[in-house]
Amino acid sequence: TLKQVTLPLTTIGKHRIRVELVGNPNEDNNAQEVELWITVPSGELFALDFDAEKHLGEMLQVNSVGANLKVLTDSLKPWSMEMISRLDRPQFAELVSATGFHLYTTYNMANGIPDNALYLAIGNLKFMYTKANTITPGKWHHVAIVIRELESDPFDGNMCNVEIYIDGKLINYYDIKEIGQALPSFGRKAELSVAQRLDGQIKLFRAWDRILPKAEVQQYNFQYCRDASGVLPAGCFAEFTFDGGPKNGFSYSSPEYSAF
Predict the structure, then answer these.
(1) pLDDT tens per residue, range 14-24
(2) What is the pTM of this model?
(3) How far is residue 19 from each of residues 3, 69, 153, 202, measured CA to CA in Å?
């Protein structure tokens, strides 16, 4: 007999629900568990504020996104990543960090790397950076990274092509310094963090399991991409907007979640 039960889940955070069948002769198959994450939207616009100098180790963990990106990369399938961020001052900031995928902003770096640029390190063998002052401290920027044409060849090695967009504009190939070739890597645990070293704010983090074309980058530039019913577009598997406000220690994009 099926019976509908209403659970009074009002506490913010993680809940584990276990359902057991009473009198089931098969004891090895009479229970099911699920996890629920509860958040209370604030109804306002919020951003995450980070201060790396005062709070060492402060970051946003999005390991469930890292796990998806690892599966895509290991299968040589393309993917895309977006974020909206603002630097409080010129700085060497680590916006995105995984075992073999790092996105930085630059300041006072060696080897002729310009200030206020984006610097991308892939697989510890492929390095790319934009021209000076493509990032302006104190200004909100939308950044999109597209990883495409992934290849793994026993003779030529691992490689991929990368597109970098800033505020909806594709950075010209000739305006990017590129050294080496490699594929992104996410390690055995597929750990992925955002704002691991940052004095500034993060407003949005979004991930796709496909190439994000120029038209869509421009369409979603400084925009949420969920429709009115809360459904994400095809291929977008996570969008964190951080509008839960200061009372929420997590941000959700079902079934993905991020922890502060």
Answers:
(1) 778 888 777 77
(2) 0.81
(3) 12, 32, 49, 39
